[in-house]
Design a protein that fits this description.
The complex is a heterodimer of chains A (about 325) and B (about 290). By secondary structure, chain A is mainly α. Chain A has helices at about 15-30, 40-65, 70-90, 95-115, 120-140, 140-145, 175-195, 200-210, 210-215, 220-245, 260-270, 275-290, 300-315, 315-325; strands at about 150, 160, 170, 250. In chain A, the strands form two sheets. Chain A has a two-stranded antiparallel sheet. Chain A has a two-stranded antiparallel sheet with strand order 2-3. In chain A, a hairpin with an 8-residue loop joins strand 2 (about 160) and strand 3. Chain B is about 75% helix and about 0% strand. Chain B has helices at about 5-35, 40-55, 65-90, 100-120, 145-165, 170-180, 180-185, 190-210, 225-235, 240-260, 265-280; strands at about 135, 140-145. In chain B, strands 1-2 form a two-stranded antiparallel sheet. In chain B, strand 1 (about 135) and strand 2 (about 140-145) form a beta hairpin. Classes of the chains: A mainly alpha (about 325), B mainly alpha (about 290). Chain A: InterPro entries: ABC_transp_permease, LivM-like.
């Protein structure tokens, strides 16, 4: 699947439209919480966290052109880093979040140093292998992680008395959860947006389009790729840590191959190399599976068919196609 | 038991595992070597072989050997036909672009898994081994069937080697692998060779799946482990190299058997998985280097 040919970056740097569009999306998501029914409210919190994960993935796939098949290890690093430190060490949510973030950063640097020696297909295989080793580790240290079964974290100590009749608000009460998920989403979105519009972002796209030429121009491509992988891994870990804290659960399922494939699917559907594609793809896929699960339990079939159809007829995804046809300024 | 018998058991287990792995990995290696694509659905072809073996062998109740022989012939044919159509319908249309085909085969993996789950169910089903004698060592009895697996796998490996190195079909395949365009110019129908290779690779996995069911029950999630082990084998053995694949399968199968007996299966998988990283650290160009996009 060839990456889209340098569209956004031809745009002038003083173009304000992308910034307004993305701030508008954040504002719309903020407003949405007052309109959504309870069920969709919870779904949306989940989608925003997963979309942050997909955005982290997209930085690597969409902008640097490196396809990883092992991102679940970074998501799980955040999940376990935050979850275990909260569960065993009694860390407060913020410190636990930071632990998750640092775990993800450290893991992505180590994996990057090794895996980035390869490229193309072997890069995919090596990341897949590392992720599988991490997944097996969560099973191997069963006594600590409780493997498949997972750990439910009790965070009820972290609550705020707002004087409401329903008692104090805890970390996992819907409004708090929604807004914290939105906060994570907004930060990931703005970080991605500023990164890809910056000089560094252009170098990353240059590497995606033609690495040899970028090296010839004097850029140390390994450093840029490592930085991109580390940021991508850290954003994924941030999403994992948030997921552990807001949904109070840590389990090895999140380290499995499936959670490496899902962000790939979301990004491909929404449009790789677009900032809002991951959100769109995650939300669409989430609801597609949710609706269809009323009629059939075969969600894997939907994932599979979606992957095959996307790669056959829709390789640029929704926003990638929109950008190509009508909105060349989309970052 | 003392160390000696333990070692013997580990060696026997490792040998059986190594032969099955060699078959599976050879299929992956063939597809990668000739077509330059990574087939992530390879493990599902293995699983399909096992599940179909359960289906076919239950058609002939009462006589395990007959049912098993039926499965050994029919399952690979069915799987081969499925793989052939998948190649025609999807992979060929993607022009065998390496990254797109990976995504497409991941899609196939999910589709096959879900269809098996829907029609076969989530339970594991056993298949009776075609023979039931046990070899009695002083310390333990060992399943004679596993030796049949070793013999059958060895025969199939030799057959594949013969097909590739001593027949006209093999020559055509190697020519395609060596230089696709020149082969095309010499009138070799490359598209048909590709479909054939993809089907052959899937059939090798399916045979391995059939051979394994009497040892390990047929289950819809059983494809993942052989897939990952085959990846490791192909990376360590070097792609498209028949000898390398077989040697690597032995190193991995035996060490897997040894470590599983002495420590735990999970640990052995972790070690095997990290072996790949080591190979790539010590050979930075990677064993996939020839195919680097």
């Amino acid at each position: 699947m060839s990456a889209p040919a340098l569209p956004a970056f031809a745009s002038r740097h003083d173009d304000r439209r992308p910034l307004w569009l993305h701030l508008g999306v954040i504002a719309a998501l903020f407003a949405l919480q007052f309109l959504l029914p309870a069920y969709d409210h919870t779904n949306m919190s989940r989608i925003m966290i997963l979309a942050s994960y997909a955005m982290g993935y997209n930085l690597l796939l969409g902008y640097t052109g490196l396809m990883s098949l092992g991102h679940a290890m970074f998501f799980a690093a955040g999940l376990y880093g935050a979850g275990l430190s909260a569960y065993y060490l009694g860390f407060d949510p913020l410190s636990a979040f930071v632990v998750g973030l640092l775990t993800g950063l450290a893991l992505s640097l180590v994996v990057g140093m090794i895996a980035l020696r390869t490229s193309g297909v072997s890069f995919m295989i090596v990341t897949l292998m590392f992720a599988q080793a991490c997944f097996l580790l969560t099973l191997y240290f069963n006594e600590i992680t409780q493997g498949d079964q997972g750990i439910v974290i009790d965070l009820s100590a972290w609550s705020w008395d707002t004087g409401s009749e329903e008692g104090p608000l805890t970390l996992v009460s819907p409004p708090i959860r929604y807004n914290l998920a939105l906060l994570l989403f907004a930060i990931s979105l703005l970080v991605s947006l500023f990164l890809v519009r910056s000089r560094i972002g252009r170098v990353l796209v240059a590497i995606r389009e033609n690495e040899a030429r970028t090296v010839m121009l004097g850029y140390h491509s390994f450093r840029y790729k490592l930085g991109s992988l580390a940021l991508s891994g850290t954003l994924s870990a941030a999403a994992g840590a948030t997921y552990a804290l807001l949904f109070s659960y840590v389990g090895s399922t999140f380290a499995g191959i499936q959670y490496s494939i899902l962000p790939l699917l979301w990004v491909l559907l929404g449009g790789q190399g677009t900032i809002l594609g991951p959100l769109l793809g995650t939300a669409l896929m989430y609801y597609l599976i949710d609706f269809s699960s009323e009629y059939t339990s075969s969600y894997m079939l939907i994932v599979g068919v979606a992957l095959v159809l996307l790669v056959l007829w829709f390789p640029k995804g929704i926003l990638g196609t929109l950008r190509q046809k009508w909105l060349p300024w989309l970052p | 038991m003392s160390l000696g018998p333990h070692l013997l058991l580990a060696f026997l287990e490792g040998t059986a595992a190594a032969f099955v792995l060699a078959l599976t990995a050879l299929g992956l290696s063939l597809v990668f070597g000739v077509m330059r694509i990574v087939n992530v659905a390879h493990g599902e072809f293995f699983m399909l072989g096992a599940v179909l073996a359960y289906g076919f062998s239950s058609l002939v109740p009462g006589i395990p050997a007959l049912g098993f022989l039926l499965a050994l012939v029919l399952s690979p044919l069915v799987v081969g036909a499925i793989a052939w159509s998948a190649d025609r319908l999807v992979l060929a249309r993607l022009n065998y672009n390496p990254e797109a085909t990976i995504v497409a085969t991941i899609g196939m993996l999910y589709i096959i898994q879900q269809l098996v789950l829907t029609f076969y169910g989530p339970d594991a089903h056993p298949v009776e081994p075609p023979i039931s004698f046990r070899i009695q060592f002083p310390w333990f009895g060992y399943s004679g069937y596993k030796l049949v697996v070793v013999a059958a796998s060895a025969a199939l490996l030799l057959l594949t080697w013969f097909l590739l190195m001593r027949t006209r079909i093999g020559l055509v395949m190697r020519a395609t692998q060596f230089d696709r365009e020149t082969a095309q110019n010499f009138g070799i129908p490359v598209a048909r060779v590709y479909s054939m290779i993809f089907a052959l690779g899937a059939m090798l996995a399916a045979v391995a799946g059939v051979l394994i069911v009497p040892i390990q029950q047929a289950h819809y999630l059983m494809g993942l482990d052989p897939l990952l082990l085959s990846f490791i084998t192909v990376i360590i053995g070097g792609l498209g190299s028949l000898r390398g694949t077989v040697i690597a399968a032995f190193v991995i199968g035996l060490s897997d058997g040894m470590i599983s007996v002495f420590f735990s299966g999970t640990l052995s998988k972790i070690i095997a998985t990290l072996l790949v990283a080591l190979v790539l650290v010590f050979r930075p160009e990677g064993l996939f280097a020839r195919s680097a996009r």
